[in-house]
Design a protein that fits this description.
645 residues, alpha/beta, Rossmann fold, 4 domains, seven-stranded parallel sheet, 26 helices, binds iron/sulfur cluster
């Protein structure tokens, strides 16, 4: 099916971005940024000439408008994929409505993963067969029931009081496993159907990387696609693609997924008033076998390699076979039911899928995958992750789509995209790097104390805590202190909390958004956090005046996926430290430091307590990849700089 083309009169980009242009007349904080205009021209040319483009757009050049305007001018359907839901919503609710003044006829759709949307059928089923727990859930149910009549999207983001981890929502969301598709009586009114229709009629479809790669992986499995046909895709925050693709081209099973199947089977029998002692016995057998199989796993939280699967199978062969048999039994009992509504067929297919996934997980010898398991609370997750996604992406994405544009503030290492291209399988692309719009040499000071021990030494924490205290006194709080490990964060927090009078906020003591809100509104606050705060956080102004990082952010080499990647590169004759670990850490450090300067008025201090940045041979690559901050190794310079902030 050809992608529709809508004739659009194209004003030259200069007349939009240039001095005295449309943006100058309409944007409240307009500044002429030559790099923004140039980036827009590159995006336009890539779209017109149907070729791939990689653009690193330094902070502050206004990259979102630089790609949105050419997209809207193109008259073709284009997908924009962001790393986070936050950016996705910002593009849809802020940037696009602003540009509507210039492009009034443009139609856009926001698409999220299915679990964000309400399943009408499940909501009605729950009413017919109420099994709500407690008054709170009854109350929440009636709020959702009332909202369902007026919402146009069915997106849970509209339900402001719905807790993130709502049990009720997980029973009524539109996830694929429990959906009967066209056989559902609500199919025509279904929020997923309506979202698809809107997307098919739109010029711009805004998704996030999770949805995009879930879709690409579904296509691989020959299921129908979630996204409409498109002529180009733009990935913003493209530095996250490798991780997200790894997740979606992998396979996962867990004790939760087995329990979900058991629970859904019971619920559907109840809702459909089907009596089947055979199915119920199979469900209880499945629960029993699942717990015998998963119980031997240690209770320690974390991610662990599962390369001893053969040994594991030898010891636990009986429990494993019994689990597979329980899944077969459930599938058989479901297929035996005389009355088999679509929901029952669905359950039988899920049982079969889970059995195949278990077999692949425990028995596959595929050397392109790393097998590992993780414990989170009571959940045990088995994962098979592709060690290298470049072949998959080359074939499925870069060879298939006419135009793929990758952009982010952090893609280049040492002035080139070689690392990114290698990891993602990009063969041909135009490449551009646009420096930031900020004057970093005046706005930021990079401080690296040289007197601290190597961060790998046990005495590091104590001395680093002392240094953090001195820095925070100079900055009067107003800082993010970012750590590469939870343990280091807690150790340093325990020391500094007794010595400092500034309000300290610690990751894990409240939800992320609540902590950030408190940070923004509490004078002189200090936030201590780990890697999840390194990305996508935007605090403008003096409230954030320093970012302190404990050590160079090398990925944990014992993490099973990282370890497998290192082993593969070394086995192929490469040097994983130089070719993988260092470039990855460079990008992570650029992200972490990127939190600080968010406008031309911001000034602030960047501190890294790891002298390897200056003393080791690879420190130069880090420094060459960072903007040209003013630099010092003396605390007196920090104090003098902060007196002017
Ligand atoms: S089509 Fe699927 S998601 Fe939509 S209402 Fe029906 S069962 Fe729910």
């Amino acid at each position: 099916m050809p992608v529709k083309v809508q004739a659009v009169e194209k004003p030259p980009l200069e007349r939009i971005f240039g001095p005295g242009g449309w943006l100058a007349r309409h944007h409240p904080r307009y500044e002429y940024r030559p790099a923004q205009l140039e980036m827009a021209e590159e995006v336009q040319s890539a779209l017109e000439n149907r070729r791939h483009l990689i653009v690193e757009a330094g902070t502050g050049i206004g990259k979102t408008l630089a790609y949105l305007v050419p997209v809207l001018l193109s008259g073709r359907r284009i997908v924009i994929s962001t790393g986070t839901k936050n950016l996705q919503e910002q593009v849809f609710f802020k940037d696009l409505p602003f540009l509507k003044k210039l492009f009034p006829r443009v139609r856009a759709t926001l698409m999220k993963g299915r679990q964000n949307y309400l399943c009408r059928q499940k909501l009605y089923d729950l009413e017919r067969q109420p099994s709500l727990e407690g008054l709170e859930e009854v109350d929440l149910y009636s709020q959702i029931r009332e909202w369902e009549c007026r919402t146009e999207t069915g997106d849970r983001a509209e339900l402001q009081h719905l807790p993130d981890t709502s049990q009720l929502w997980s029973r009524i969301d539109a996830r694929r496993e429990a959906c009967t598709g066209q056989k559902c009586p609500e199919f025509e009114r279904c929020f997923i159907t309506l979202m698809h229709q809107r997307a098919f009629e739109s010029d711009v479809v805004i998704v996030n990387h999770h949805l995009f790669f879930a879709d690409l992986a579904l296509k691989q499995m020959e299921f129908s696609s979630l996204l409409p046909e498109y002529s180009a895709v733009i990935f913003d925050e493209a530095h996250e693609i490798e991780d997200v693709a790894t997740q979606y081209f992998g396979l996962q099973i867990s004790n939760y997924r087995l329990e979900e199947l058991a629970r859904d089977t019971e619920a559907i029998l109840r809702w459909k008033a089907l009596e089947s002692p055979g199915v119920l016995a199979a469900v209880s057998e499945l629960r029993h076998r699942a717990s015998l199989f998963f119980d031997p796993f240690p209770s320690k939280e974390g991610r662990f390699s599962f390369d001893n699967r053969q040994e594991f199978l030898e010891t636990h062969r009986a429990a494993y076979s019994a689990l597979l048999n329980a899944l077969v039994r459930l599938e058989t009992e479901l297929s035996r039911l005389k009355e088999r509504p679509e929901e029952i067929n669905n359950l039988a297919s899920r049982a079969a899928e889970l059995r195949q996934a278990c077999e692949m997980m425990l028995e596959s010898r595929d050397r392109n995958y790393v097998f590992w398991w993780e414990r989170r609370g009571r959940g045990i997750f088995f994962e098979a992750s592709p060690i290298d996604v470049s072949d998959i992406l080359r074939e499925r994405l870069f060879h298939t789509a006419e135009c793929v544009i990758l952009t982010s503030a952090t893609l280049a290492v040492g002035g080139t995209f070689d690392f990114l291209k290698r990891r993602l399988g990009v063969e041909h692309a135009k490449e551009r790097i646009f420096a930031s719009h900020f004057d970093y040499s005046r706005q930021a000071l990079l401080y690296t104390p040289l007197h601290l021990p190597d961060p790998r030494q046990p005495e590091f924490s104590l001395q680093a805590a002392e240094e953090v205290i001195q820095i925070l006194k100079a900055t009067r709080g107003r800082a993010f202190v970012l750590f590469t490990s939870h343990q280091q964060m807690r150790e340093i927090y325990e020391i500094i909390r007794r010595r400092l009078r500034y309000p300290l906020l610690l990751q894990g003591t409240a939800p992320r958004t609540a902590l950030l809100d408190r940070f923004r509104t509490t004078p002189n606050a200090v936030l201590l956090a780990t890697s999840s705060f390194w990305q996508g956080v935007d605090v403008q102004g003096q409230q954030l005046s320093a970012v302190i990082i404990d050590r160079l952010p090398f990925a944990v080499p014992t993490d099973p996926v990282v370890a497998a990647r290192i082993a593969q590169i070394n086995a192929d004759g490469g040097n994983a430290f130089v070719g993988y670990q260092i470039p990855n850490a460079v990008i992570a450090l650029k992200q972490g430091f990127g939190r600080l300067i968010r406008s031309r008025q911001d000034r602030g201090l960047l501190a890294i307590l790891d002298h390897r940045l200056v003393r080791k041979f690879y420190g130069k690559l880090f420094l060459d990849s960072l903007p040209d901050y003013a630099r010092t190794t003396r605390l007196e310079d920090v104090r003098a700089f902060m007196r002017e902030c």
